[in-house]
């Protein structure tokens, strides 16, 4: 079996579930349509409506004004006081959605600025923000969910928050596509998931843990099992720590943010058919850390190709001086691991090491 691994590098720096009812209501939303249940729910609540000819047009894009109407119907925000005026020059009192926009702007969902752009299609990033603000969801900076195309910026915290709550799952290849547009069916699903979160929070089934800075579902007795990739990656971390402990070196702390980076690097190698420390997508490991705002004073990377088990890859790394030095370096305090396969079944392994 052909296998390779590169020398390590390091750098130091000092409602009812009635899809059939939806079919009767809309000729273009059949019982097997992926968002039939959510469309039916929001229709029953009066937040979304169909068209006169009996169609829903689920793939039509949602405008910002339409999103204001949907969220207003679902969350019933406090009515803005009589003296409150918006600054919008393009969403004035004669606009059909002005009342919805005004109330939500007063409650902080929309920013009171010169332009509202009511007929502009809602972006996925904007969707994240207005759902978080409308449902008064506490945001945090744990970054337990990561998307390669939203490492920072105005909408980063909103996007990661709804991902952590399962309101969105993102797109393929660890992407969120923040500038992508939201269809009527997609918004129905996002809003339905937010409603379910809100119901469980009101019932005391979901609570916010201030210490861990995250929401906890008290009804979830059995957390989601790790994926096969996560299990294999964790095995490599355990084997590395066993090597360190056998030599009296303090074990490394598994770092979710570092593992996110390592997983993206493994996936990048598998998808783009290369095996190098310098990624065409992320650059060197320190470039990647900067891209994702990862703080460190020392950082390093081990990669390997086509080993068939966690034990095999760690053994090969331990038999290579540069890799072994990274694994046993007492200056490192944290570790992240990633594992991916390409279409041919070839394996790509990554370990990231850091000191914060």
From TrEMBL:
InterPro entries: CAP_dom, CAP_sf, SLH_dom
Pfam family for this entry, one: CAP
Keywords associated with the record: Signal
Stretches assigned to the SLH domain: 22-85, 87-141, 142-205
Database matches in CDD domains: CAP_bacterial (cd05379)
Residue spans crossing the bilayer: none
Domain of life: Bacteria
Signal sequence region: 1-21
Protein name as annotated: Uncharacterized protein, YkwD family
């Amino acid at each position: 079996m052909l296998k390779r691994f590169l020398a390590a590098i390091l750098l130091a720096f000092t409602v009812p579930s009635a899809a059939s009812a939806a079919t009767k209501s809309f000729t273009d939303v059949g019982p097997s349509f992926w968002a039939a249940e959510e469309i039916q729910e929001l229709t029953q609540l009066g937040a979304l409506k169909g068209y006169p000819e009996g169609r829903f047009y689920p793939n039509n894009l949602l405008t910002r004004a339409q999103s204001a109407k949907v969220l207003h119907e679902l969350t019933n925000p406090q009515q803005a006081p009589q003296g409150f005026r918006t600054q919008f020059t393009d969403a004035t009192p004669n606009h059909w959605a002005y009342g919805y926009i005004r109330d939500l702007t007063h409650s902080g969902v929309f920013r009171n600025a010169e332009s509202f752009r009511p007929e502009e299609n809602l972006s996925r990033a904007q969707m994240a923000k207005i759902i978080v603000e409308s449902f008064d969801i506490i945001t945090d900076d744990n970054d337990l969910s990561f998307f390669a195309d939203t490492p920072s910026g105005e909408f980063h915290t909103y996007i990661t928050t709804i991902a952590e709550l399962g309101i969105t799952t993102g797109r393929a290849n660890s992407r969120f596509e923040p500038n992508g547009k939201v269809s009527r069916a997609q918004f129905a699903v996002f809003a339905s998931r937010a409603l379910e979160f809100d119901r469980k929070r009101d019932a005391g089934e979901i609570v916010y843990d201030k210490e861990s800075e995250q929401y906890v579902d008290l009804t979830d007795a059995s957390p989601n099992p790790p994926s096969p990739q996560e299990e294999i990656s964790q095995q490599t971390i355990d084997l590395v720590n066993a090597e360190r402990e056998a030599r009296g070196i303090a074990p490394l702390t598994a770092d979710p943010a570092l593992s996110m980076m390592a997983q993206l690097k493994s996936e990048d190698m598998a998808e783009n058919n290369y095996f190098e420390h310098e990624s065409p997508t992320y650059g060197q490991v320190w470039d990647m850390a900067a891209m994702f705002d990862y703080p460190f004073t020392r950082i390093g990377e081990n990669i390997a190709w086509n080993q068939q088990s966690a034990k095999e890859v760690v053994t090969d790394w331990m038999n290579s001086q540069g890799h072994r030095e990274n694994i046993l370096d007492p200056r490192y305090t944290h570790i992240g691991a990633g594992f991916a396969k390409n279409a041919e079944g070839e394996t790509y392994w990554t370990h990231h090491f850091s000191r914060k």
